[in-house]
Structures are given as structure tokens and as C-alpha cells.
Amino acid sequence: MSISEDTAVGPNLDFNPMIAPHRQNPHLFYAEARKQQVAISPTLGMYVVTRYQDLMTVVNDPGTYSSSVAIPRIYDNPPEVVAELHGVPETSMLVNEDEPLHHAVRKVFEPALSAKRIRELTPLMRDTANSLIDSFEPADSADLHSQFASPFVQKVLSAIIGFPVEDSAQVQRWSDYQAMLFNPLAPTDEKVHAARGMRAYTEYLQELVDARKFEPTGDLISCLVHGTDKYPPLSNDQVHTLVRGSRVAGYDTTRDSILSTLLLMLRDRELWEAVRSDSARMLPRIMEEALRRDAPHRGLLRLATRETELGGASIPQGAVLFLLFGAGNRDDRMFPEPDSVKLDRSNVRKHLAFGDGLHRCPGEPTARVEIRVAIQTIIARLPGLHLAPDFHPEYVASFPLQRIGIAAGTRSRRCVVNSPSHDFRDAMSSFPSGVTIVTTTDTDGRWWGFTATSFCSVVNGTAAGARLPGRHRRVPSGVSPPPNAGSCT
Prior knowledge:
The protein is an alpha+beta fold.
């Protein structure tokens, strides 16, 4: 059973994920780049790493390739934005930590994501999924992004971290503010507004932190506040930074993994029916193939701490490398016929959707359970769900995430972008990524909206504008960037 990739766009050896052709199909660039030595992308100003073995070399040598630049900081913004952040704490996030600090922080972090904790949360996941389906199943139309995957992940994350579930929507708005502050492409006035919102987020989170000091509940906030028998609790600023970062990291990736897996199944009815008939055996296979084939993020950045060689290229000290995990996941030297869906791959769990090495995602087991529960529930409750015959996905403009832009249309509701005075079809041309209108229908002839990205999610007949994360880096003291590394934004 296999599905061939549509390859309608030609490759370009300079990589820019924000525009065509790489936006629509980055895998064509990935395939060409894997044939050559590691090279710097003029557009990005960083070395692009695409081969599986080269990626493994980098992630398993943290001494040579520092993680300190992996994720931007909210205080790396224009002065008028930073002025509004007064009092908002920030330290380095877990993904940016090098040893020895990384190990100690991770050990405090991990109990909140233990196997025992996941088992305790699984009934909540099932109840949440069923409740969400209950809310839209009687209707003539629904959107699997805004009405299912997004609120599902939000509510599960709330339970994991320690946010009251009823506050999930508000916490998502605050989390979107933080993502906005990560984005160097966002207008400064919008960032100023986001920075002001972070103050309320800080006050809200501090109340939860103070409460957990006296009454721990086993959630992430409790673990960070109290530490373990062997590792001390984190500072107040560290707790704020890690909680906010975990909320951002755990949302987009898990939501898009759920939707990408569903999309892969809905494109092949034989595959859908195979999973329906033997979920316990078949669903884990298709989940892993979806994670391998459509990793929920492109990758992370690393900083060369010394001059070195990688993939046939000389890498200068201070160079920034973009680790394209999605490219490594389709390296045919590791995964034969990488563009096809093959459910019998013996090495599929070696994919890099969760990274590898020191910074392998600590939320990996939890994310897998979330994906499994969400899809099992959808299959059981909506067994006849179909994609429209003219469906064609399109990648959206995004730097760190590899997202598919699918906006939902229905037979009775018009989609608009930002303002009801603009028709969605007209407004599409104003966005650099483009959007494809898609509908699905079940065996009863009802129409269902389906979207796999936050770029244009249909909510009550309107589509919300996208976050467009871009390049952002920090260079630790004592390490000088090469002249061609570009400027810090």
C-alpha cells in the first residue's frame, strides 16, 4: 500500500521556506540538497543540513554544535516592544540549554510526562475527544482544526501543565502572544500589543506557581516548583519560561501531527479502512509513517562552537546550521522509497520528527498517545468521513514548521479573512503562502471542513490570520558569527 508524492514544482538550491516553490513542496529542494555537500543558503544565511547521517552527527555532538540558538527569546525585539515586557520573566528554555544545565532541568521536567502520568491522563483525552465530536456531529458542517484538533490539544496540555481546563482558550491567546514575539516578521505594533498581553499571562501564571508551592498536584508546574529527590526546584523565572515554552511547543506540533495523520488516511480509502478494521495494529504504523513523512516541524538551529567538517563541507566557528529533520526523514539511504507510505518499514521509529540525541523531545510519548486517542475517536465516531475528490494540499509560509495549508469551505458558509468585507477567494491572493479550499463529506452526504494549520483556520465562518515565524538567533558570548551569517533580528 503506497501513496506517491505529487512533485509539480522544480527544485531550487537556495532554500527559502517562506515563498514558492519551497513553500508548496520543500521535499524537492530536500532531495536535491541531499545529493550535495552541506552548503550555506544565501537567503537564510545559515548552513542547511539535509542528510540523515549528517543530522545525526550534529545532534549527537552537542559539544561542537551548541543548542543555544535553537529558539529565539522574547526580549530580542525592538525597544518599544521590550519596554512593554517589563516584569515578564525569561531565562533560557530547555531546548536552548547545553550541558550540564540541560540534564538537571530535564530531570525536573520529566516526571510530569512519565508513563504513569500519561496513563492517568488518557481517560481525560478520550472524554475530551468525544465531547468535542458531540458538539459538532449533529451540525451540517464542522472544522476538524478549530472544532476538534485545536481544542483537544489545548485541553490536554492544560491538564499536563496545570492550567485549569476552562481557561484553555485564554491561555491559547496568551501563548499566541508569545509566538508573535518570537516572529521577527510580525509588525511592531502587533508585537507591542502582544507584549502587553504577556503581563497578564505572567500574573496569571504566578498565581498558579504560588498555589503549587503549597499544594502540588503532579502537573508540570508542581514538578518544576518542587524538584525531585536528586534535583532542586527551579527558580521562579525558570518556571515561567519553561511553562510558557512548553505550552507553545506542545500545541502546534501535536495538533498538526493529528491532522496530518488524518489527512494521510483520508487520501487513501484502503488505508482508512485498514486502520478502522484493526486499529491496534495499523494505527501505530500509519502514525509513525505520517510523523516520518510529514514531520510537524522542519527542524531546529545549532551553533558551531569550533571549526569543523560536516557532510563534505568546512564549517567555520560561529556558523549557524539549520537542521532540516523533515529532509532527513525522506533520505532514501535511510528510508527506501521515502515519498511513499509503507506500513512495513522496520526502521520507521528512527525518524527525526521528535529530533534525537540530547534534545530529543521529552513530550514524545505523550504526543503519541494524544495522536492515537484523537484518531481512534474520530474513526469510531465518523467512520464514513471522506475527502473531496478535487483536494490538493499546499504548504504555508513558515520557517520552523512544515505545515499544510488547508482552509475549509462549506456549501452554505462563506469564509472571510480578518474582515467580513473581503471574500476569502479574493483575500487568498494577498497572502504569500496561498491557501487551498477543501471540503470533505461523509457517507450521509454531510459536508465537513478540514484544516491542518493555524495559517487560516476557519472559526465561525471567519479565517484567522497566520503567524509567520522567521529566522531569529542568539550568539553566546565568546563566539563570533561568520561574516555571511546574517544579522540578528
